[in-house]
Automatic annotation (TrEMBL):
Domain Smf/DprA SLOG: 58-252
One Gene Ontology biological process: DNA-mediated transformation
PANTHER family listed in its UniProt record: PROTEIN SMF
Matching Pfam families: DNA_processg_A (PF02481)
Top-level taxon: Bacteria
Phylogenetic classification of the source organism: Bacteria, Katanobacteria
Similarity comment: Belongs to the DprA/Smf family.
Record's protein name: Smf/DprA SLOG domain-containing protein
Organism field: candidate division WWE3 bacterium RIFCSPLOWO2_01_FULL_39_13
Length: 342
């Protein structure tokens, strides 16, 4: 359970000028000071916070932090969207966020009901890490039944961070949530919009991302859905459509398989498998014996897994080069790639 002893408070001092963006060097780095009022801060944590702070505008002057940052948090993607999440949005969020987390990417979001909570939970279920940025102080978190259990899980499992720039007593206000969105984006190398109405706060997050020089990815949705209107507007403005976590992993430069044709040897497929989890092995045993592609519904029926668990397993197999999506978005074994042992 999260308690006051888990929360570290840090004060931040910036150079008087310079240091714009997230590039820090020279005198700016020397003048930038983080001092812990409560608790201690490791070197890796300080480096991650420096990049976030210099990437945010306005820059935070104080942070309350529960949990601990890890080196892998330097590769982070924000997954955000509507509070009124649809079943489609939930399925997509679990697939995208879970797949990224399974590949070692930290997931950042705002610990609000809807897409935010779904993204945090998907990351935890995949065995990954997550950063939850609050739009209020820690005292208020203790009263929120939808958010508190997830925050407690992040802390108890040591799989991420819960962070707020507000004093502990700060209550949620109209201005506090949009303001925190710049921090969600600043932690991340890219932002993924799962669902968004025209007035969704995730549109604000996308705006911060563009100001910070981050790429915005959008999951297309139904043209008849209110929670698609905002994200389709972003697509028209140049956001990148995404239908798989692999799209984002490729953008980040995270790959796990090498096409045999690029190696000049089409028969170089490795017969030995990497260490697979129980779920990954279950899916692989089904795929390797099938000559035709299978839909996710087919695999759900065959494996009896939850959609979230299946999505994580399928994404992991894709990353390992053992499975692939075809043009109809069905899944099949991939015999033309060389699995890499992670």
């Amino acid at each position: 359970m999260l308690n006051n002893n888990d929360i570290r408070r840090i004060n931040i001092r910036y150079p008087l000028r310079g240091g714009e963006g997230d590039h820090i060097d020279g005198d700016d780095a020397k003048r930038f000071k983080i001092s812990c009022v409560r608790g201690k801060l490791g070197k890796e944590e300080e480096d991650i916070l420096k990049k976030m702070c210099f990437g945010s505008e306005p820059r935070p002057k104080m942070l309350n932090i529960a949990g601990g940052f890890a080196l892998e948090d330097s590769v982070c993607v924000a997954v955000v969207g509507s509070r009124k999440i649809t079943q489609y949005g939930r399925d997509v969020c679990e697939y995208i966020a879970g797949g990224l987390a399974a590949a070692g990417v930290t997931i950042a979001s705002g610990l609000m009901y809807g897409v935010d909570l779904c993204a945090h939970k998907a990351a935890i279920s995949a065995g990954g890490r997550t950063i939850a940025v609050l739009g209020y102080g820690f005292d208020h978190l203790k009263t929120l039944r939808y958010a508190r259990p997830v925050a407690d899980e992040i802390i108890s499992k040591k799989c991420g961070v819960v962070i707020s720039e507000y004093e502990d007593f700060q209550t949620p206000e109209v201005w506090t949530f949009p303001r925190r969105n710049r921090i969600v984006s600043a932690f991340s190398k890219a932002v993924v919009i799962i669902e968004a109405s025209e007035n969704s706060g995730s549109i604000i997050t996308a705006g911060f991302a563009l100001e910070q020089g981050k790429e915005v990815f959008v999951v297309p949705g139904s043209i008849f859905s209110d929670v698609s209107k905002g994200k389709h507007k972003l697509l028209k403005q140049g956001a990148i459509p995404v239908d798989s976590p692999l799209d984002i992993l490729n953008y980040l430069g995270i790959t796990s398989s090498t096409n045999s044709s690029s190696q000049g040897n089409s028969t170089a497929f490795q017969t030995s498998l990497p260490n697979l989890s129980e779920n990954e092995l279950t899916v692989w045993e089904i795929l390797k014996n099938e000559t035709n592609p299978l839909t996710l519904d087919d695999l759900l029926f065959e494996t009896k897994m939850s959609p979230a668990s299946l999505n994580v397993a399928v994404t992991s197999l894709e990353l390992l080069g053992l499975a692939k999506h075809d043009s109809s978005n069905s899944i099949q074994k991939n015999s033309l790639t060389i699995p890499v042992h992670w």
